[in-house]
């Protein structure tokens, strides 16, 4: 199987970003740039990608999304290596719980700067590059393609959790710039979407066992499928939103959450 073009994944040193990079290479992507603030994790991901396909061109480059200079430098490296972007996945994020009275403004800024502002800085850099590129006209495609962007938001973008006001606000913000830019740039043949994962077993949640009786277990019980998701299952959503198979889809927030909101919808609680 071949997956066309150049893929960029920011937040690829761990969890969902790493699984997404692996899936793209497994599905035939041979040109990929991976970025993260954790350079150690990034080089582990690179080794794993080269095990999947030793001939893949894999560029690992440090990227701290809290720094405008770092983001711009990272995308400069993307350009000097490959000269274009076909698919971008913005994944980097942190989870800092805490109710508002106990949460410091400094922590609010840290979380917002990574999850929302940082992701927007990446999306802006990607759009600037995509708009410079001529669209391609694949045979059989109903419309030209200039590129895709897929952002990782959260179930906390669609509903609130009373111990996560800062996280929720950073994740709600992602849907704002995802949808606004999707509306503006659809006619330029750029599709921009988001996935909204539920509880996914990654280092972000710590080493929590499936049967643990913490808040995570409570959240998992709300899911129709009754289990935590795997990063590979979120990667499938990002891959689909990047692929020609989703050619008529833009501006959506795709829940990948094991049916987490069903109970509430049927009870009419939302
Ligand atoms: N795990 C879940 O249950 C879950 C649920 C909903 C949404 N999400 C979202 O999925 C995304 C990925 O999280 P994950 O679960 O894979 O966690 P993870 O901790 O495994 O991965 C997060 C990655 O982001 C990177 N990162 C953190 N700060 C950064 C910065 N300043 N610049 C660049 N990279 C930075 C980390 O180094 C790490 O590699 C996050 O945006 C998270 O909010 C996760």
Features of the shown structure:
single chain, 270 residues, alpha/beta, Rossmann fold, seven-stranded parallel beta sheet, 8 helices, 14% strand, binds nicotinamide-adenine-dinucleotide
Outline the structure in words.
- By secondary structure, the protein is of the alpha/beta class.
- The protein has one domain (6-255): Rossmann fold (3-Layer(aba) Sandwich), CATH 3.40.50.
- It has helices spanning 15-26, 39-52, 68-82, 105-132, 165-185, 215-221, 231-242, 262-267, and strands spanning 6-10, 31-36, 57-62, 87-90, 147-152, 190-197, 253-256.
- The protein is globular, with a radius of gyration of 18 Å.
- The chain starts with 5 loop residues before the first strand and ends with a helix.
- The mean pLDDT is 93.
- Bound molecules: nicotinamide-adenine-dinucleotide (NAD).
- The site of nicotinamide-adenine-dinucleotide has 31 residues, from helix 1 and helix 4.
Structural class: alpha/beta
CATH level-two architecture: 3-Layer(aba) Sandwich
Please give the CATH class: Alpha Beta
Rg over CA atoms: 18 Å
List the ligand species.
nicotinamide-adenine-dinucleotide
Instruction: Could you tell me the CATH topology label.
Output: Rossmann fold
State the distance separating the first and last CA atoms: 42 Å
InterPro entries: NAD(P)-bd_dom_sf, SDR_fam
Keywords: Oxidoreductase
Family: Belongs to the short-chain dehydrogenases/reductases (SDR) family.
